[in-house]
Amino acid sequence: MQSLFYSIFAHMEKFEINILGCGSALPTLRHQATSQVVNIREKLFMIDCGEGTQVQLRRSRLKFTRLNNIFISHLHGDHCFGLIGLISTFGMLERTADLHLYCQPELEKLLIPQLNFFCKGMPYQVIFHHINPKEQKVIYEDRSVSIETIPLEHRIPTCGFLFREKPTPNHILRDMIDFYNIPLWMINRIKNGEDFVLEDGTIIPNTKLTKPSAPPRSYAYCSDTAYFPRITEQIKNADVLFHEATFEESDISRAKQTHHSTAKQAAQIALDAQVKRLLIGHFSARYEDENNLLQEARSIFPQTFLANENMVFKL
Asked: Which residues in 72-190 belong to E strands, given as ranges?
């Protein structure tokens, strides 16, 4: 029984980013439309749901039943055209758990007629949670994580999402459990800060029995957006920043016209926000090789990585 506790104390909880699609609006044979799944302690959170997302979800081998929350950044088709297909498939799989969709109110108006026509009699409910992309606000919270909106600058109202892991209790030291013969019922109390009192009244301080847990991690998703330095304060010190890098710097005029970012601009945001790692994506179909984007970003921010379909990026 105690070995179970030791194994739990010994490793950091899962926090992974699964890239399902990292292309931009124009379909290509190399990249899928935008979608990601964030896996936090085996709870799955989907960000955006472009066309073909359900096929990519199959390829990822993530469990459909653990996906209960979907977050839509904005109402461009390459970020939401996959929703009705995914919702319908969940119904055919006889899903019973409610599916929570965090989106702007206009998306509910668009989806309801499709749900009524294509998805009559589904064994589960789609529950809409309206968000305001212009405000910074916590829109989801549970025991493991909070998720807040990041207002962005795009052609239409758009927000990113900031995932903040909640702190976990201290780790109790195995040797101390054995040495003081600590009963199982006391372990959680000690992890949460209590001292241990021996039968003779001697107090063993908590600092001797535990070591600090790993610091909580954070992930910032920022796509689609023009260069928008205002976000750096909100995402400061994030463990990973996903920032769109649709264009090379040589195409900056096109980036400004479409309210997108260059790889160099994404790297500047990462540098100014002092994040640990930068993941770039939402690549324009005009480029056959994204390594130019990677090198451009790394010239500003060396800890930059290219997103790619079916990549699992671990925090």
From this structure: 99-103, 126-130, 138-141, 145-151, 159-165, 171-172
Q: Please work out, in degrees rounded to the nearest 5, the angle formed at the alpha carbon of residue 240 by the alpha carbons of 237 and 243.
A: 105
Which residue in the list 48, 78, 142, 195 is annotated as catalytic?
78
Residues contacting residue 255 through CB under 8 Å, at least 6 positions apart: 226, 227, 246, 247, 261, 262, 265
How many other CB atoms sit within 10 Å of the CB of residue 106? 12
pLDDT average, residue stretch 97-119:
97
Catalytic-residue membership of 200? no
Q: What is the residue whose two structure tokens read 């996959």?
A: 82
For residue 287, pLDDT beyond 90: yes
- Mean of all residue pLDDT scores within the chain: 93
Is the pLDDT at 9 greater than 50, yes or no? no
CA nearest to 164, candidates 150, 184, 181: 150
Predicted TM-score (pTM) of the model is: 0.90
